[in-house]
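Support reply, case 0932

Customer input (verbatim):
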Amino acid sequence: MFIGNIMQKFMISFLLVISLLVNSGLVNAAADLDVNTPAISALKNSMQSRHAQLAAHYASGAIGLTADGLIAVRDATALPLKDRQGINALVAAENNDRNALYKEVAAGNGHPEWQGEVRNIFAGRWIDKAQSGWYFQRDGGWVKK
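Our regenerated output:
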């Protein structure tokens, strides 16, 4: 009985220490979103050059930021008919680069399994940095910032 109580106290203490380590972040390190590789630099440059073409469409409400870190055509009627095909190509290219960026940042941290976490963090950052008047998704609907 005495040995059982000692083992029980040891296990409780052990679990408490592990819990403290996990909750303090000593076991799970956060992703370094500023990691830089040649692939990440190329993606950022591509996205930055495309942003000039997308900015007016964010402002008009035609496109918006999705909750999963991508962009989407929100209101095609806000676009002239002649621009609709081109904006779809821009949105697809932007989303391809964003998906590649999340993958590369996770890989650059040596943890490709962090891709989902990286995506979620970037999604929040994109929305935080969005200009007033831009749309973003929240709770399944579009919200104007």
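We compared this against your earlier run and they match. Two observations from our side: Residues 33-144 form one domain. The two ends are 64 Å apart (CA to CA). Please reopen the case if you see a mismatch on your end.
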